[in-house]
Amino acid sequence: MSRDRGGDRDRPWLLEAVRRRRTVFVDAWRSRLWPVPALGVVFAIVAGVALPELDAALDKRMPETLSAYLFGGGADAAREVLGAIATSLITVTSLTFSLTVVTLQLASTQYTPRLLRTFAADPFVQRTLALFLATFVYALTVLRTVRNDDDSGAEFVPQLSVTVGYLLAMVSVLALVLFLGHLVRQIRIETMLDHVSSDIETTARRMLKLLEDTPDHDYTPFPPSDASVVTARSSGFLVEVDEQALLAAAVEADAVVWIDRPVGSDVVSGVPAALCWSAGAPGDPLSGERLSRLREQVRGALSTGLERTAAQDIGYGLRQLTDVVVRALSPGINDPTTAVHGLNSCSATLCELARYRLGRRPLRDDDGAVRVVLARPDLPDLLDMVCDQPQLYGASDPTVLARLVSMLRELAWVVVVPAHREALSDRLRRMERVVAEQDFDSTDRDRLDRLINHVREALDRRWPAT
Questions:
Q1: At CB < 8 A and 24+ separation, what contacts does 351-355 make?
Q2: Which of 114, 270, 290, 312 is deepest in the core (most CB within 10 A)?
Q3: Confidence (pLDDT) at 27
Q4: What angle do the packed helices 418-437 and 379-393 form, to 10 degrees?
Q5: Looking at residues 210-219, what average pLDDT do you find?
Q6: Is residue 137 within 8 Å of 45, Cβ to Cβ?
Q7: Which residues cross the membrane (predicted)?
Q8: What is the 3-state secondary structure (H, E, C) of the chain?
Q9: What is the pLDDT of residues 115-162, one digit of tens each?
Q10: How far apart are the C-alpha atoms of 405 and 384, rounded to whole Å?
Q11: Which residues is 275 bridged to in the sheet?
């Protein structure tokens, strides 16, 4: 891809690269519990140093109308107030941390460990902890400036600073009440499923294009038999693919790069993760320094991590939703109602994703030639992820099977790609075999057969009979 054809072409390329890097950075920042509280502590230290200085500057010039509303006690009283604030806030902070840890443990054991990232990224929890820690640190920092009238100097009581500490304490009390109510709401399964579904939709809007905005048949070359292998640099989950870096590397080497693993898949160091081959004449193969440089650039564009993230991973949210369903169907929990709630969210999410162009995505250079082929899950892959394990573990529950069949009917009304409709037909046949193998009574079997017929009618674009 040429960089010397004018700034107008470079600018979208740079903006896209910066936007994607910013998205990954923001996702990594917000999914950790410590950054916002740490910023609160730093801000509290700065305020605890600056406000007493302001108090000293305004000591003799404070308007009486304002000073009447400020703290009016002496140095000993100021120490008692600030000490009480610091002591109570560190206790409240410990309580908040304890409640948060209990909530994380509950989510891990009751639903799925993959929901822990959602709780850690909760901005309300982060800001509440930041407020409590900031108030504690602020009270301690201001406390060091309070002086009695003795040989070392005149009495100094930072009225404005103590008053601010009092207000912070009152706000912290209110925040504690709101935090408890928020925590009770957060551990509800409906709230968690809604958060995960929202993350999936956000990722889809950012990473995918709508069907009507893309050609029906976007050509993607298949790797030739003599394509060169590019192995992964490190082991872990593939969490990010730098698309612009891959495109630039492929253009520079006059090659085509085929990424073999979608974001979210596990990769192992030294195992092939991509293929590349020359885009030039057949007598111009990739070799030598040109091939080595391209391999290093491709490895550098593939980032791995210890856990999956929602920044570029289309299937991560569905994996979370499916884990909730599977955990609810386990003998230790045995909660089919929660499983049905999870399948409701899965169905709504799959119907939303059906509006987008899924599957492999080609990246083209300025001349329209395919330079990079990215691996992305297609709708059949996502459908298998959602249906395989719930169908296996919920085969003996007619309610779970009924919800799975209803999900196929709902998808049948929104899916338009022929390959996707064929995948629905195949999944329906597999579902029929599972239903036929179960020893259900006549009422449950008739209900399931009726739902299966509704799916067939929806695939034929006919409204089912009532």
A1: 351/410, 351/411, 351/414, 352/200, 352/201, 352/204, 353/200, 353/204, 353/208, 353/314, 353/379, 353/382, 354/379, 354/411, 354/414, 354/415, 354/416, 354/420, 355/210, 355/211, 355/414
A2: 312
A3: 63
A4: 10
A5: 74
A6: yes
A7: 33-51, 81-107, 128-146, 166-184
A8: CCCCCCHHHHHHHHHHHHHHHHHHHHHHHHCCCCHHHHHHHHHHHHHHHHHHHHHHHCCCCCCHHHHCCCCCCCHHHHHHHHHHHHHHHHHHHHHHHHHHHHHHHHHHHHCCHHHHHHHHCCHHHHHHHHHHHHHHHHHHHHHCCCECCECCECCECCHHHHHHHHHHHHHHHHHHHHHHHHHHHHCCHHHHHHHHHHHHHHHHHHHCCEHHHCCCCCCCCCCCCCCEEEEECCCEEEEEECHHHHHHHHHHHCEEEEECCCCCCEECECCEEEEEEECCCCCCCCCHHHHHHHHHHHHHHEEEECCCCCCCCCCHHHHHHHHHHHHHCCCCCCCHHHHHHHHHHHHHHHHHHCCECCCCEEEECCCCCEEEEECCCCHHHHHHHHHHHHHHHCCCCHHHHHHHHHHHHHHHCCCCCHHHHHHHHHHHHHHHHHHHHCCCCHHHHHHHHHHHHHHHHHHCCCCCCC
A9: 777 777 788 989 999 999 999 999 999 999 998 877 566 788 999 999
A10: 13
A11: 229, 258
Token pair in block for residue 386:
């959602």
Q: CA 173, CA 417: separation in Å to the nearest integer?
A: 55
Tell me the C-alpha distance between 401 and 157, whole Å: 71
Task: Name residue 383's amino acid.
Answer: L
Task: Give me 52's structure tokens.
Answer: 């007493």
Per residue in 171-182, pLDDT tens?
999 999 999 898
Question: Do the beta carbons of residue 275 and residue 231 sit within 8 Å?
Answer: no
Query: Token pair for residue 284?
Result: 């111009």
